[in-house]
Amino acid sequence: MRLENMNLPKGPDSLCFDKDVFMKDDFDVDQFVADCRKHVQLEEMREDLEMYSKQLKTAMVELINKDYADFVNLSTNLVGMDKALNQLSVPLCQLREEVLNLRTSVSEVVKAVDNQLSKQDDLQNKKINVMKLIQVVRSVEKIEKILHSQNSNDWTSLEMSSPLLAGQILERIATEFNQLQFHAVQSKGMPLLDKVRPRISGITSMLQQSLEGLLIQGLQTSNVDIVRHCLRTYATIDKTRDAEALVGQVLVKPYMDMVIVEQFVKSTPNGLQIMYTKLLQFVPHHCRLLREVTGIVISSEKADIVPGYDFLVNSVWPEIIKGIEERIASLFNAGNPDTFYDRYIISIDFVRKFERQCGSQASVRRLRAHASYQSFHNKWNLPVYFQLRYKEIAACLENAIADGLEAAPAGSSYHLLVSQVLWNSLVRCWVDKVYLPPLSHRFWKLTLQLISRYSKFLTESLPSSQITELSEMIKQRLEIIGYNNFVIVAGMSSSCLKDEKHTLIHCSRQVFNHGTYSISSYCMLVDILPFDCLFDKCPPLPCVLSPEALEDSKASLSGCIPTLNRKMTQHLTERCFRFLKSASEVPRLYRRTNKEVPSRASAYMDNALRPLHQLLSDSKDTVKPSIAQDWLRITLNDCTHRYFETISDVLSSVKKMEESLKRLKQARKTVTTNTTGTTGGPTDDSKIRLQLALDVEYLGEQIQKMGLQPADITMFSTLNDLVQGAQDRTPSEQAGP
239, 244, 252, 721 — which has fewest CB within 10 A? Predict the structure, then answer.
């Protein structure tokens, strides 16, 4: 009895445990105590257990008292039971012996019956084998009787005079031969069959020779009935492949030997196309009879159709491929990719046209599964062709990159030659005379590689250190020849990625030489290559090759824009500040020189701002105005910040010099002259401050001419306040004592 089926007496509701937990098979004392301690103290748990233990003892006493009479009578009822059991054991033993004896007798009878049945089955099998041998002998004798009823001369004359009758006789022989083959297979291994086998071989040889001769005669004379009887006979004896092979050797091969000639293909214009056209003409001109008989072509006469044949797949196609591979092996040479492409396209078109002649989808599937079909396609070394195209296309882009940042030819929609070459390379991957559908995945990979190489060119083209070195070298050479009015110009555009426009962004620096040692401009140009136009030029691609797959490449190219923008503004800042730092030379121009009071900005300001003006004029047709304004704002912010530091240092130096001179004058107690030695005029320091104020004022005017506001420049107001404040604090000139 399972513990779960026992009902324990119900305890008080105040117990800290459930009574049923004691009846579980996996009851654990430690776990029980741990669970109870979570709710009550150990003393309270002990009191509950003692209370419930007393209740269990009470319930047990009540249960015993309830069934006490049964407990007492139990021992009384078992008195004399052992004697009764001993009395039963004797007859049971006797019964067991009788059953064993009976079982032994029955087993012997069953064994005897099995032996008799085995003998009977053996006799039956031998009888069946004998009957099969008898059928084999009868079939052999029957066929020999039919064959010997006509001697060889009579049979030949019968074939010539009445080929239809000969075909009917052969069909009858084939039916009997089929039965002979069946019984011979069933009787395999019997001695008598080995004695009859030479006669069977003779019948087989004679039957095949007669069928071959009659089939050839039927094909030559275009006798539908004879061909039908022969094919049906071949099918009856399960020799359809022999018939297809015979047609291939007798009907197809001579025609292929005449048409497939390598000299004709090489010497005749469009020789390969002409050869394939003649090969395609073979089926309607020479195989119509066979196709009518086998049901490929529906004939006007409602005659019987002989199924099980596919002469186009098993007779015509193997001979075509065998002839091409043996006689025109140079057809598959991939040395010249253009020639290889033309040959491949013409050959694949021939295969497609041949497939359309098959007449059914099942026939096409059999053709494509044929070993010669696979062999023909494997002969075309497409990987070698792609490698040649890869070298050809990739070399053009690499050469363009190696040539440097040359300008695109006149009339091009791109600024740089490398951008034009990239676009031509991308388009060339998918144009006719280059792209082959089986290589779509390879050309797709090449497309991505070209874009990746282009993107790498963006990031590696003329690093900042090279820019500075090159600019310094140019500047030095220009100064040597006395040409100081030179400009360094920049211009670039960021991408505008619209929903239906996918663009390739290329920005690159280029130095254009003018004359021997002069430089006309230093440009950063933009070339936009539309992805959608690229896919318009592409043939239909697999679903996995879609414009969306270029998102990574587009993102990579777009990621170059911030870097190029940063390089652009850094370069402009360097070119501008090269002159702005000349503000530190202003004190040298006015101190102790008796120079007139300044009335206009310094010359270095025009030189410093000329690259920015040139940027606006040269980028009108290349860069969006908003982009150019961003460059100007960033450049002016950087330049103004650095210019502020320079001006601040100059003013500090001027102030220190001024204070030093004051102390010197006081020490000498002289009032004869001012700092410059001139009485009644402005001091050198005031001239310096005035000149700096005029320069900053001029800078604000030029910022407005560029389309910006001085308020757009972060440090300009601070700079202006600095120079104005310095000018206001200029000490009054003192004249005499």
Answer: 721
